[in-house]
Amino acid sequence: MTSYISAWIWSERFWFPENVTWADLERPPPGVEYPRLGHLMYAFPLAVGVFLLRLLFERLVAKPCAHILQIQAGVPRRAQPNDVLERVYQSKMSPDTRQLDGLSKQLDWDVRKLQRWFRIRRNQDRPSTQIKFCESMWRFTFYSGIFIYAMQHLWVSPWMWDVRKCWHNYPFQAISSGQYNYYVAELAFYWSLMFSQFIDIKRKDFVIMLVHHLATIMLITFSYTNNMIRAGTLVMVVHDASDIFLEAAKLANYAKYQRLCDGLFVVFSISFFISRLVIYPFWIVYTVLIDSWEIIGPYRAWWLLNGLLLVLQTLHIIWFYLIARIAIKAIFKGKVSKDDRSDIESSSDEEMNSNNRKTPSQTLKPKDGGHTGNLNGETHDHCVQ
Q1: Are 276 and 317 in contact (CB under 8 A)?
Q2: Taking the model in full, what pTM does it have?
Q3: Buried/exposed code over 310-331 (b: 16+ C-beta within 10 A; e: otherwise)
């Protein structure tokens, strides 16, 4: 049974076009190296190294920068200790009305008091602005560095300017050290994101990001294994381009440079649209789907890789919808609102509803000296979280 599964997984008819075998790639000409799946094993220890490097970077570089910009860690208000409520909180962070009524009778607490307790308890687990700043600074640094590294190699590559050359003499295309380093670095980074996502800032698009990371890891692995590296490098560099401006906009937001945040968000929106809704589908997906069909013809892995590329394109459309919502809010409010993906709250839905029942004088009373509020999601008047 094991041998049957292994034979099915490593079937040459799955991975390669007709008349191409694993043996063909295991015997490259002298001085030429073809990709092998074993090469990617180095990405696993490197992913651990990337994660440890991130911790050092955030502690030794990002945190001092946050102090210079006067971004404080902040100490959240702590909820009153209560074993019963804590057990409920661990199972469900936001109890429904029926549960709140039951707890009200059990503890002889007012429902409003219970709502307030759960709101404060949720805020205890939410990261401070300083933590979010450090996370974004790490991603900004990585995306900037890896994008520059990739462009140095791709700029002189003929297939960047003529994407049909991605398929010339396929799959017998030599891999350069620059391509290998780029692939392993990206794969290690996404593996580190895959695991650290469970301890990082929680977003409303947690599941979407999980799917994105899985699809990206599978794309990197599969494209390397069957030597679609030329197209793979184009896919990765297109994604890194707009991410730089997103993280830069977040940094400006956390530092309370609102005009800079707004400007960077505009640049991010434009770069996202051009790179992921124009270049990616009409150049990269087109060449993988259409040009490769004409030059080498379809095979089993070809269908899988194109399916993953289309999954990413679907996610791009969803994200651009969220970006457009922020942009529309900006048109009416005069500045970029917080990221709709953010899971940060200033109050629970119940508290918001209760605020609507306040008198006009209470509702319109200025808080914290005006409309800017703080950067932990307590207003909708800030840039991406």
Answers
A1: no
A2: 0.75
A3: ebbeebbeebbebbeebeebbe
